[in-house]
Specification:
With 250 residues, the chain is α/β, with parallel strands linked by helices. It contains 8 helices and 7 strands. The radius of gyration is 17 Å and the shape is globular. The chain starts with 6 loop residues before the first strand and ends in a 10-residue tail after the last strand.
């Protein structure tokens, strides 16, 4: 119970990495505020935690809207009394050609994946300072914050920004005792990738284990980063990529 009674917000908590991390944090004793654009799935995650004997509430929020993030943070403190941690995890994006990266699509991806992280850092740290909390903010970046591949122009631009925002925010907030870190996942096993799909096999082969990464594997790392055992890690983006970034592909 390394996170006992720590109040932690998770955005994008309705599925995937967000849901797995919410469950993991709760299993370590955290009080989780499950937030998602989809209120139904945010509630489902909170109920899963409660049924397992943990503590959780839920708040719907569109992370691209300042008023939603302000409400999410204010509601968290109103209900639970404090804010110890924030996992800026919500994200969007798909594979499409550069010609299909219209201004509207580009703005949509960046508004969630980049601006949404900024809003979380800005309003989250502001509330932590107001409360006198030496909190922890963790952001979801990506292996594509470090490298380029065809079909993800907007996503890659946003995730590269998350890597740098993490460094910059850590510098800005260090004097207040607030740590800012990020994780950079590799290819995650989600329902979007069907079993037996050639594309699934191709993605798995990009990892040293030749397997897709499970959301729970990311959750384990995020949970550790929220603990005091990770107190010397700050400003860094931690690849959780099963070796993806270490070797050159032909």
């Amino acid at each position: 119970m390394k996170l006992e009674n720590k109040v932690i917000i998770v955005t994008g908590a309705g599925s995937g990495i967000g849901r797995a991390t919410s469950l993991k944090l709760a299993s370590e004793g955290a009080i989780v505020v499950s937030s998602d654009y989809n209120e139904v799935t945010a509630k489902e995650t909170a109920e899963m935690i409660q049924k397992a004997g943990g503590q959780a509430s839920y708040v719907r929020a569109d992370v691209s809207k300042p008023e939603d993030i302000q409400h999410l943070i204010d509601k968290t403190v109103e209900v639970h009394g404090t804010l110890d941690g924030l996992f800026n995890n919500a994200g969007v994006g798909d594979v499409r050609s550069f010609e299909e990266h219209t201004p509207d699509y580009y703005n949509h991806v960046v508004s969630v994946d980049q601006f949404g992280v900024y809003l979380g850092i800005y309003y989250g740290s502001k509330k932590m300072k107001e409360l006198g909390v030496k909190g922890i903010i963790i952001n979801t970046a990506s292996i594509f914050g470090y490298m380029a591949a065809k079909g993800s122009f907007a996503y890659q631009a946003a995730k590269a920004a998350v890597v740098m925002m993490t460094k910059s925010a850590a510098l800005e907030l260090a004097d207040d005792g607030i740590r800012v870190i990020a994780v950079a996942p590799g290819f995650i096993d989600t329902p979007i990738i069907k079993d037996g799909d050639d594309f699934k096999s191709f993605l798995a082969d990009q990892h040293l284990s030749k397997k897709l990464i499970q959301p729970e594997q990311i959750a384990d790392v995020v949970s550790f980063l929220f603990t005091g055992e990770a107190s010397a890690i700050n400003g860094q983006t931690i690849p959780v990529d099963d070796g993806f970034l270490i070797f050159k592909r032909s």
